[in-house]
Every structure is written in structure tokens, then in C-alpha cells.
Amino acid sequence: MHDPTEQARRQRLAEINSEAGERAELEARYGQVWDTKELARDFIVIGFMAPLIVVQRKGDGVKGSLEFQHQPRYYFNFVEDR
């Protein structure tokens, strides 16, 4: 099965994890950041393909996507679906 997003996702995954930052660094770069517990509090996870995760915000039902890094595991760069 061919995934047309695979090459772009692999490249972005390598970029994110080669520059894995601490929370303060990620917040300065992307704004709000969530750890795993905070993610579960604020979102329903719909699906994921690293480094992206598709979510629905619990507060207002808005769907969107986040990026995530592996170590330390943080979710960031929320983009609302349009």
C-alpha cells in the first residue's frame, strides 16, 4: 500500500526528534504544549501517523492536528482543520 505522505512525515519526524526540545523551548517556538496527561485532558485522539496526531478538542469539539516528539514526549503546533 502506497502512502503519499510517508516521505514528508519521515523527514519531519527526523527534524523534530533531532532537535527534541524541552517544554520551554517548544512553547517559545510553537505556543501551547501538552504532555501526555494534558493531551488526554484536553483532546480526544482520533488517529496518528508519526509525527502527527489527529485530535478533537474536548472543550468545543474542534478537530485538528498536533505534532509530537518522542523524548521527552510533548505534543505541540495545534492546527485546526478547515
Task: Give short descriptive properties of this protein.
82 residues; alpha+beta; 5 strands
Secondary structure category: alpha+beta
User: Biggest sheet, in brief?
Assistant: 5 strands, antiparallel
Count every helix, treating DSSP H or I runs of 4 or more residues as helices: 3
Distance between the termini: 27 Å
Number of strands: 5
Topology:
Layout: H1 6-18, H2 23-30, E1 33-34, H3 36-42, E2 43-49, E3 52-57, E4 63-69, E5 74-80
Antiparallel strand pairs: 1-5, 2-3, 3-4, 4-5
Short description:
It contains 3 helices and 5 strands. The protein is α+β, with helices and mostly antiparallel strands.
Task: Provide structural commentary.
Strand 2 and strand 3 form a beta hairpin. The protein is built from 3 helices and 5 strands; from the N terminus they run ααβαββββ. The protein is 34% helix and 35% strand. By secondary structure, the chain is of the alpha+beta class. The chain has one domain.
